[in-house]
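Hi support team,

I'm opening this ticket because the web form for multi-chain structure prediction keeps timing out on my end. I have pasted the exact lines I submitted so you can reproduce it. The total is 573 residues across two entries, so I didn't expect it to be a heavy job. Is there a limit I'm missing, or should I split the entries? Thanks in advance, R.K.
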Amino acid sequence: MIEMFQNLKISFLQDYRYRSNFIFGMLTPIFTIIPIFFTVRLFNLQREIEWYLKGIVIWFFISQIIWGNGVILKREKDRGTLEQLLLVPKNIIYFVINSSIYFILKAYVSMVFIIFISNITFGTQLSVLMITYILLLGFPFYYSLSMLVSFLCINVHNLFPILQVILASLMIFSGLTYDISFFSQFIYSVNRLNSLYHMISLARISNQINVAIILTYEALYLLITGVISLILVILLTNRYIRKFKINGRF
Amino acid sequence: MNAIEAKNINKTFKSGNKSINVLKDINLEVEHGDFFALIGLNGAGKTTLIRILSNILLPDSGELLINGMTYSKNERIIKNKIGVFIGSEHSLYGRLTAMENLNFFASFYNISSKNNQKLLKERMFYLLKLLNLFERKDSLVETYSKGMKQKLLIAKALLHNPDIIILDEPSNGVDVVSNLEIKKFLIKVNAEENKTIILTTHNLTDAEDLCNKLCILQEGRVVENGIFKDVYKKYFNDTVISILLKNSISENKYKEIINLKNVDRVQYVKNNNGYLYEIVTKKDSSTINIGEFINMINMDDIISISEKKITLEYVISHLIEKV
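Hello R.K., no limit was hit. The queue was backed up. Here is the completed structure from your submission:
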């Protein structure tokens, strides 16, 4: 536990001492709220604002984690510190997990801030607890996705377009900000395999925190696919590290 | 049980369609308490071997035992027993202080639990004081000089009090004072704490000053391995007299000198100040009759005569010529 706090402190200090990154990072929630304010009536005429905001809030949280985790190992490699992390007894996954705790907390604080502002500005009644509950259910899935991105991006020179493509795909095919039912039947059916879609649906059908949500089809699908993808990512990561040890490069 | 035992280690890297055999049948034995030098030219395979010893790379074949254990079965135990210095000034977090850097890396070892916090702090202070970094312990690492960063990386490698210390060119790019401090530190750690140290370096004087054993690598092969003194004796149980002349020696005189008692060979060495000849005695015969030799050449021609001291540089150049 003490190691986790040590890592958390170090991640915060590193972020904090790159002042511009830190300040703009903290301002992201405000930058997210402003376009919603202008676009909500344009693209979402027939829907309630709460319906739209739930998607935005969840997308904001997930994208923050994928964005944050996606660059963890790439940043270490570019700095020249990745090799030092391979010398230590603990697996590099331990480092990725510990580093991501900071991004999760940061994203969570920002998300709570967005909900708070939205409730005041738009008069919505979004429950932080309910959103947290849904986010926890989907956590294994999007977290393993972010770990996968982190390892895949080590050798990519320009991460920005890759992360943009990943986040745009998530945005389009998860129904985060609009109903995906207008896609053709085929795409709609394929999209139902997407765990994030079920996560968003779950958030939209539940208004109050209810433990029984876990027994719904969406929640079970989300949990099962999440656990499977987490196991697969851990196995894949170990394979990836072994590949590095054989070839001398990722 | 040896500290490190490598048996028939091979490593090949693929570059496009080509395969580069970087290490070929490396056999190595490092005993506990040894100060072991790995020496070779650039591309000889030193760093690859160090990386294999540190488990950053896996060998294609062969067996590696650290304290009698293999990485495949006891990776965590071994990594807690070895301290590795690999990398450069960029291998630390510039925006963190020295203490924050050490605390961060300590969190990956078994030393940072709540009960060990006091001991860990004491260890950090001890290392920083020994390496003359204590006064700057709360400064950001990005404000450090290259030498200071190298020293902090050494402190990082020794943080968990390992039994075996592996250092890949610790004096690379470091000024004379920092190099001297690093050398003093390593001597102290080896002598007083009985740590096993493996060191690669291009600075042969450092290797001679610090190490008791050496292994010379050439094109991925071990060309010499053993105790320093034995290696010197093996190759240079002979005396070399350097003589600098104003004019060159004629062919007839050359033949006469070679026929002198105990002289093995005479070799010409390029020199800007005149004609430099090295007269090498036969093995196991440490003397030549210098008077007899001087009689053979014109006294006015002699600029200087000296006995050449055998250095590691001389050993290596001789071995490389042989290869």
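A quick check on our side: Chain A has a mean pLDDT of 81. Let us know if the file doesn't open in your viewer.
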